[in-house]
Amino acid sequence: MTHPKNAASASESKAELQSELKTEQTKMMTGASILWECLEREGVKHVFGYPGGAILPAYDALKHSKIHHVLVRHEQGATHMADGYARASGEVGVAVATSGPGATNMVTGMATAMLDSIPIVCITGQVGSKLIGTDAFQETDITGVTLPVTKHNYLVTHAGEIARTIREAFYVARSGRPGPVLVDITKDAQQSTCEFDWEAAKPQLPGYRPDLSPAPAEYERALELIHNSKRPVILAGHGIIISGAMREVRDFAERAGIPVALTLLGLGAFPASHPLNLGMMGMHGEAWVNHTIQEADLLLALGMRFDDRVTGTLKTYAPNARKIHIEIDPAEINKNVKVDVPLVGDLREVLLELMPHVESIDRSEWLDSIDKLKGDSAVRDIQNLPDSGHLYAAHVINDLWRQTRDGNTIVVTDVGQHQMWEAQYYKHEHPRTLITSGGLGTMGFALPAAIGAKVACPEAEVWVVVGDGGFQMTMCELATLVQENLNIHIAIINNGFLGMVRQWQEFFYDRNYAATPLLNPDFAKLAEAYGIRSMTVSERAEVVPAVEAARRHDGPMLINFKVEQEDTVYPMVAAGAALHDMIRRPSPIVETAEDE
Amino acid sequence: MLNTFMVYVENKPGVLTRVASLFRRRAFNIDSLTVGRTEKPEVSRMTITVDADRDQARRIEANLYKLVNVLLVENITNQPAIVRDLAMIRVAARHETRSHVLELANVFRARVVDVAPESLTLEITGGEDKIDGLLELLRPYGVLEMVRTGIVAMRRGSKSAANNAGAETAGADSDDSSAARDDVSYSV
Fold it and tell me: Model ipTM?
């Protein structure tokens, strides 16, 4: 420290030094340059976007940035790519678009990310601040439009607000329960210049509390329920992957001897091959998993939200079970299912707190009884039915899994029957190896999300598993795939129907197949138009050679799997039915197939 | 049951829309919502009344906290509080009924704020029951026009909620009735 008598001169020179430092730290920059600079500082390496009038100043400044811009073919694709990027890497994905239609095209992608808690930041241009409210060309109130489908959103009208807003947007998107954040920046805010000072632009979020933790008394109540339980089940959800609590969940399940049922988005959070893994629960979950939940005396919900697709009707859901809910979002507590002990906090931290007090308990009796619940499930499995000569989607998925199981493979699905078959037949050992739109069920998600995943994880082998319907919703992104030179394999599960809708029509609408048969293009010619190799497979024996040919091929490959047209996903819990009340696949071996 | 929430929010554009949108989105019906400035320029305060059971009320509170601009939420339904609503009522008052109307206004401590040949305009402040009571009695004379502000509320006692703004956690139980009991205060 400076001696007191020199203090005056010292403080003078200090002030000089500070002002020098200040000129270095704070330089005059345009809002557009500040935007890219802030994205770089937030660790962004890739953005997915589409230019237009109101975002042009930002695009003009892009040439000075190290960030790689992926030009998409539709802004919805940009959001799904950012989403796939985030799901594959755990980092925040970024999508960029212009005002008006560019921004509204992003709404589906934001809603998808919102319902699945995916951290993405969407940046849109907005008309000049003087024009706001005048119905100017390509003006849309996108912050108003996206209010219910974003975790938070911003309208920025001054260059000086950009740095803080971007920092806040990334912080909000990735912390607590993650979600999409929209930053709408007026054209004049991008064009005008101001001082840029990263340090001074710290987030100011006095009302935002992402880090809650439970009270000690609640831990004690939870432990008591766990130790007194005879028939407990863990319901493992997406929160495990978001929290990075895979190891902790495994330790906990092993020590307490509790079997694990998974939600769709939880697949990969607990190894499929683990002896305590039961499989997927819910509407198209395994029959024994749903029966296990219905017979349980304790449900431990870990980072899941009791979605209607996993509970069936709430009136008869797990009627004898006490419930412990470990969840980061307090608004999820008692939303659908009333719980006995809520533990609100980060799942990993809560489990680490709980673990030292968990007693090792032998529950072999309960585990044995679950084995009995499997009953005739195996003989109803299409894999075990006599070969009819038809190619079923389950065969394709199962063979794909066998061929790629040892690799570093990410499967990205679309929405519908193929998605459920993927969930049933592809056995995921690791987190972030299944990327799928769960909550919103967004058709058209797969191809762009796979592009995002491949950009995030270039060494991974990425497979798109997509229906012929959903593929046609966003197939324009094939051009993005080729332009970015991405080695992605596309397996179209082609049944010539909007299969899941057809299935509902079969069961609940008297087989009135209204608007579900599809007239499809020649997918081989389509692939050829983009310079993508393709194959067509319609025999079961051709599946493995086709998958291997794709894996050997240095470049993208599209395989058109022509599968049985009117196959059905079993088991099925009808919407609003009880979880144990399942429609099962008829089996020639099981005599009374329709007895339930 | 009618729940009353005091909600402290950042005084920023669009925050009212965010709060209103939340109630619409989660299908909770707002009975009354008022918003205004507070002793701190950067903070606005809302008083929201909603018909909700206990569990719904807790979820409303949790959902409000999910809004980034919300600083503090307090459910004061079961706490000692001062609750006020303001109404302006234009009531028909011809020569023969004028004195009756004035008498009622007097009993309810309502003020006459405008006088016209065929009508009187009354201003009344108080709890909702009091205003409803006056309205009931004025109806036979002919209520020509009425406007109400919706309620504003404040907890009794010297402890101010604003001191806690930003400090409390969403998970914490906001039942501070013991503190409220310690601060003796009287109804005036």
Answer: 0.89
